[in-house]
Amino acid sequence: MASIGISGVRKSYAQFPVLHGVDLEIADGEFVVLVGPSGCGKSTLLRMIAGLEDITEGDISIAGTRVNDLDPKDRDIAMVFQSYALYPHMNVAGNMSYSLRLRRTAKDKIAGIVTAAARKLGLDPLMERRPRALSGGQRQRVAMGRAIVRQPKAFLFDEPLSNLDARLREQMRGEIKKLHQDLGATSIYVTHDQIEAMTLADRIVAMNAGLIQQVGTPLELYDRPANLFVAGFIGSPGMNVLTGRYEGQTADIARLVLDHGPAIPLGRAYPLTDGTPVSLGIRPEHLELSPAGGAGLAARIELVEPTGFGTILHLVTPGTSSIALKGFTLDRAAAGASREVSLGFPPERLHLFVEEKRVEPAS
Amino acid sequence: MRRKRLLPTALHRLAILAYIAFALFPLYWLLKVSVTPNDLLYSEGVRLWPSHMTLDHFAFVLKHSDFPRFFQNSLIVSGSTAAIVTALASTSGYALSRFEFRAKYLIVALMLLTQMFPLVMLVAPIFKMLTPLKLTNSLAGLTLVYVAFNVPFATFLMQSFFDGIPKDLEEAAMIDGATRFKAFRQIILPLTLPGIAATLGFVFTAAWSELLFSLMLISGNQSATFPVGLLSFVSKFSVDFGQMMAAGVLALIPACLFFLLIQRYLVQGLTAGAVKG
Amino acid sequence: MSALAPDPRFVSQAPGPGQRSPFLRRLAHASEPWLYSAPALILIVAVMLVPLVLGISYAFRDVRLLNPFSGGYVGLQHFHELARDKAFWGALKNTLWWTGASVFLQFFLGLFLALLLDKPFYGRGIAQALCFLPWAVPSFLSGLNWAWLFNPVVGPLPHWMVSLGLMSQPENILSDPTLAMWGPIIANVWWGIPFFAITLLAALQSIPRDLYEAAAIDGAGGVQRFFSITLPFLAPTIAITVLLRTVWISNFADLIVVMTSGGPANRTQIVASYIFTQAFKKLDFGYASAVALVLLVLLLAYSMLIVLLRQSLLKKG
Ligand SMILES: Nc1ncnc2c1ncn2[C@@H]1O[C@H](COP(=O)(O)OP(=O)(O)OP(=O)(O)O)[C@@H](O)[C@H]1O
Ligand SMILES: [Mg+2]
User: Fold this and answer.
1) Which of B116, B248, B276 sits opposite C139 (nearest CB)?
2) pLDDT digit of tens for each residue in chain A (363 aa)?
3) Cα distance from B195 to chain C (closest Cα, Å)?
């Protein structure tokens, strides 16, 4: 187990820059999840930590030692690939023991370690099989087994569950979490799946276009997104964003005047001058629906999408410059009751962004 | 509907049969003459099968001629060419498949060039170069030349096989603790075995068929390869048709065996740079 | 030695376990692709590139194997000779004829064979193997084999031609100056059809089947489907294989050397076989190299022409 330090890391392929300076400290035993849109450089960062890509600039250290100039084999990390990358010509036992055999571990010791790992992952009856003869979930387990037998300094996962169906993914997610609790190994985990990120992570690292946007616990990212990107990326359905100008210097009159539209009271004062262009964010589940004619913003329900658990509502404000919003409610009756509603914006649920960046209310 | 389809189907099958007949006829004739007794060859004229057959020609070729030695020489040259080329091409093909380096396109261009220019140009200079090295009239010299001629094509072929193996595998091995070369040997090569077999087959057939350089570089009977031996036999004893064709049938055997080996990979082989077509 | 204290300069730089100094590692890293490709490259340079350059220099020298005093520079003398050499001009003409006829027949018959084999039918695997078998026959053997077939003593072809009324008495066409070229061409076509058939069949099988179904639903007949789907899809493969094959066949001398050695009266001599004859029979390496240089320049010009043609087509398209 070890900490991992990444400081000022940049990466270019030929002249084309991919990572523009990444700083990140990962504590011993921490489970960090990297999220971000496709192509933002998550895999690249992970592969640089593994030693599979050269580091164009900056330093990466594992357990306090700079590893820039170490080959992957000398970094003592394990990686689980999206494709699993199981060796097709070796059986499950062979796959799991390969790293130990490379290190010339004694035969009986290897047998002991592999058996223990196999038991932990429920692979015992499959040890003689070739990867070809395994199901997706079983292959995934073998890949995990191959990583844990060595007790490496850190685990790297690159979208390890994305080839599984939804049910299996949920199950494996649980197992990974349990495994991490058992082993307490430092882990870096790349995923597209929000739920995976939220449930597994000690801390989430949100990336976009080769830059880290925010680092924090899952709930920090959910509750206090640092910028519009994180706000839009975390949460499903995504956060509603309205644009307008800020007005009012005290809590009781502070409001957002929407472009060509009504104003929304903010309930709190922000350290902004009047007329500052701002973006207002509110999550669908935080919009308050009440019957038409209430105090809020008038809107019409355009479309209802029941998900079983709750209902997603597509809302449109009336008028020429109508705004589309999404709402989410657990109250099935409310969704069906009326087409015309009034929307409330509870002040403590609002997020304000100026030039993409979060602004906190003046205290 | 079925009625209407019957005629085109029959025509289709007929056309295929006709082509097969065209493709096999020369080989069939080779076989036929090789088992026809000499007296019948002239007396019976054009007949599809002789009234009785004999294996005398084969017996003579195997017992009283130099052909077994030619055969052996060809086998040595083609076999070692195939083995060496495949070994070289598996590393160079791997380099082209896995590494991005500046000179890569230069290397590819060089290798493509060697596939385009007339090799017959090199007959004279290679002869001149090999003479002082005592490599003319030697199987080693011939093998050296064949190896160089076949490496570019085999490199492209092996590259196409490596391209079909995910990079993840050796990366996983390298993370597991292997050096790149170890990952190459223990993980990638075993997975490329079919490709290696196909490359061996392609190079073997190419070396087995090569004519011009073996004519130029080899003179005595001692180290003559099969084509050289057969051609000198033809020009010396051009009346012993039965024996010549028996020898021809023998030359066909390894070619056919290797054809079976590479059948599945013909497309890949031909697109990799056209060894002999 | 053990009495000596370790030199501090080395101690401070001593890399840790598994760690090499950054410089060495970078060097190892940069040289890795070269280590993998060096053996192949060295061979190619030594056995192909060096002789190529040497051969070009021979074109301007008097290099005759049997004359120990040869070797001096003669400037453009070979090329002056070449300009007056009827056999060379004949060979040039024969090369066009040989290449054109071979490529044309190989391509159309190969395309036809590929279309035949593209349809699924019972026993396709074995039929395919038999159709492609001629490709595996060593070229010298196919040459000899066809030479024997044309030989009235052992071959049936002359007799059949007489029965068909194409010939008045069984003769060997390989010794008839007007017909001799057909001998190697037929052998070449027989031997080379599989090449085109295999490449075209692969291209045919990569055409998505649902395109044909969509076209059939739209009411396109078989011929229409061929011209509106099959042909456009095959076009790039056809262009590339035909162009490369043209170069290859124009260099392909084996069949001619085996079947006619250029005769009768140089009527089947192509440039490639002429080069070989000059080097192999006359042992005049200088002159052979001069001819080879001309062939090389012609082939280069042809390749350039194709590249230019492609460029202008791309611009239009
Ligand atoms: N070998 C390479 N050469 C050039 N560019 C590359 C190479 N590998 C990746 N890139 C580029 O680097 C960027 C980041 O790629 P990376 O694979 O890290 O994205 P990612 O965040 O993992 O995306 P995904 O979620 O789709 O896996 C992409 O724009 C990609 O095109
Ligand atoms: Mg990725």
Assistant:
1) B276
2) 689 999 999 999 888 999 999 999 999 999 999 999 999 999 999 999 999 998 999 999 999 999 988 889 999 999 999 999 999 999 999 999 999 999 999 999 999 999 999 998 889 999 999 999 999 889 999 999 999 998 899 999 999 998 888 888 898 899 999 999 988 899 999 998 888 999 999 999 999 999 999 999 999 999 999 999 999 999 888 999 999 999 888 888 888 888 877 888 888 889 999 989 999 999 999 999 888 877 788 888 888 888 888 899 999 888 777 788 999 988 877 766 568 888 999 999 999 999 989 999 887
3) 18
Ligand 1 atom 20 nearest Cα: A39
Contact B207, B146 (CB under 8 A): yes
Spell out the domain ranges in chain C.
Answer: 86-316
Nearest residue on chain B to A81, alpha-carbon basis: B168
Residue C259 · residue C143 · CB < 8 Å: yes
**Token representation of residue B58:** 């084969």
Chain C: touching chains (3 or more CB pairs < 8 Å): A, B
CA–centroid distance for C221 within its chain? 38
* Residues β-bridged to residue A204: A33, A216
A10: helix, strand or coil? strand
Helix (H, G, I), strand (E, B) or coil at B81: helix
What does the pLDDT look like over C11-61, one tens digit per residue? 333 444 445 566 777 787 788 889 999 999 999 999 999 999 999 998 998
CATH of C86-316, one of 1.10.3720.10, 3.30.565.10, 1.20.1050.10, 1.10.1670.40: 1.10.3720.10
Residues facing residue A280 across a β-bridge: A242, A352
pTM over cut 0.90: no
Look up the ipTM and state it. Answer: 0.88
Radius of gyration of chain A (CA): 25
Between CA C274 and CA C266 the distance in angstroms is 9
Structure tokens at A152: 């490496």
CB C137 within 8 A of CB B252: yes
CA B277 to CA A295: how far, in whole Å?
83
Among C245, C232, C272, C233, smallest CA distance to C106 is for: C245
Residue of A22, A34, A40 to test ligand 1 pocket, by largest number of atoms within 8 Å of CB:
A40
Three-class SS of residue A150? coil
CATH class (in words) of the domain with range B63-272 = mainly alpha
- Cβ–ligand 1 distance for A281 under 6 Å, the answer no
Give yes or no for a contact between B135 and A32, defined as CB atoms under 8 angstroms apart: no
d(CA A24, CA A212): 9
Query: Which two tokens mark A334?
Result: 């409310």
Report whether residue A191 contacts ligand 1, using a CB cutoff of 6 Å: no
Measuring CA to CA, how many Å separate C313 from each of A56, C227, C232, C241? 41, 20, 15, 17
pLDDT at residue B263 is higher than 50: yes
Distance in angstroms (rounded) separating the CA atoms of residues C254 and C242: 20
Smallest Cα–Cα separation from B260: which of A120, A173, C130, C80?
A: C130
pLDDT band at B203 (very low <50, low <70, confident <90, very high): very high
Contacts of residue B43, Cβ cutoff 8 Å, sequence gap at least 6: none
Nearest residue to C132 (alpha-carbon basis) of C234, C183, C184, C200: C200
Tokens, residue B233? 């036999």
